[in-house]
Amino acid sequence: MSDILLSLKGVKTYYGKIVALRGIDLDVHRGEIVTVIGANGAGKSTTMMTICGVTRAREGQIIYDGENITTLPTHQIVKKAIAQSPEGRRIFGRMTVLENLQMGAAVIDYAHFEEDLRMVYDLFPILEKRQSQRGGTLSGGEQQMLAIGRALMARPKLLMLDEPSLGLAPLVVKQIFEVVKELNEKQGLTVFLVEQNAYHALRLAHRGYVMINGQITMSGGGKELLSNPEVQAAYLEGG
Ligand code: ATP
């Protein structure tokens, strides 16, 4: 079994004639937290969507758990234990918290529902308090917790998070990132995180990639990038 869980090799993605990813190479090892940081419009969400097959790579390959998934339909990719918490959270606003979590578990036919629900409630106790409340009535932070909880109900091998900090208060961001760290340390969960919030993302991640205009321009250890003057000037100062 390879140490690499996910590998992108020369991935190019277009929206019509517009190129969004210009040949991305990156690896995520088993048990790692890897982040892609970059400004608005750099191509972070497109990277995530391309991995899930929602947006198709026109060139290059996506290898997951030793298998080429580049052209697989999204529903088959999801079945391979890749779970995503998308940008903007996309929770089901009219459904209750509990129903949202049931939706996450549907992917694996509710095989471990009670056990996994307990795990999610232990990670995010506020979700248990709010379990009968409609998703749309939750605060932004609670909705983000619900989106992550829903992804966890699918028992992912790879958890992908798209800008979990977006629009949230610093304290809530800290709390959510601590849970991600705990999941990684205690359960060995592999996490792929794309973030504009470079400070929090690089502090959390074992390794990071910097993306500019659809290209990876720099990579290194999370702490190493955090102390890199170019990264500091572009993404951290005043941020
Ligand atoms: P954000 O933080 O805003 O989500 P991002 O780094 O995730 O930024 P993407 O959303 O992946 O960036 O966008 C990459 C590029 O592709 C941008 O230039 C964007 O305008 C373009 N783009 C994204 N979605 C579409 C689309 N559906 N149609 C056309 N162009 C798109």
From TrEMBL:
<dbReference type="InterPro" id="IPR003439">
    <property type="entry name" value="ABC_transporter-like_ATP-bd"/>
</dbReference>
<dbReference type="GO" id="GO:0005524">
    <property type="term" value="F:ATP binding"/>
</dbReference>
<dbReference type="InterPro" id="IPR017871">
    <property type="entry name" value="ABC_transporter-like_CS"/>
</dbReference>
<keyword id="KW-0547">Nucleotide-binding</keyword>
<protein>
    <submittedName>
        <fullName>Branched-chain amino acid transport system ATP-binding protein</fullName>
    </submittedName>
</protein>
<dbReference type="GO" id="GO:0015807">
    <property type="term" value="P:L-amino acid transport"/>
</dbReference>
<dbReference type="InterPro" id="IPR003593">
    <property type="entry name" value="AAA+_ATPase"/>
</dbReference>
<dbReference type="GO" id="GO:0015658">
    <property type="term" value="F:branched-chain amino acid transmembrane transporter activity"/>
</dbReference>
<comment type="similarity">
    <text>Belongs to the ABC transporter superfamily.</text>
</comment>
<dbReference type="Pfam" id="PF00005">
    <property type="entry name" value="ABC_tran"/>
</dbReference>
<keyword id="KW-0029">Amino-acid transport</keyword>
<keyword id="KW-0813">Transport</keyword>
<dbReference type="InterPro" id="IPR052156">
    <property type="entry name" value="BCAA_Transport_ATP-bd_LivF"/>
</dbReference>
<feature type="domain" description="ABC transporter">
    <location>
        <begin position="6"/>
        <end position="238"/>
    </location>
</feature>
<dbReference type="GO" id="GO:0016887">
    <property type="term" value="F:ATP hydrolysis activity"/>
</dbReference>
<keyword id="KW-0067">ATP-binding</keyword>
<dbReference type="InterPro" id="IPR027417">
    <property type="entry name" value="P-loop_NTPase"/>
</dbReference>
<dbReference type="InterPro" id="IPR030660">
    <property type="entry name" value="ABC_branched_ATPase_LivF/BraG"/>
</dbReference>
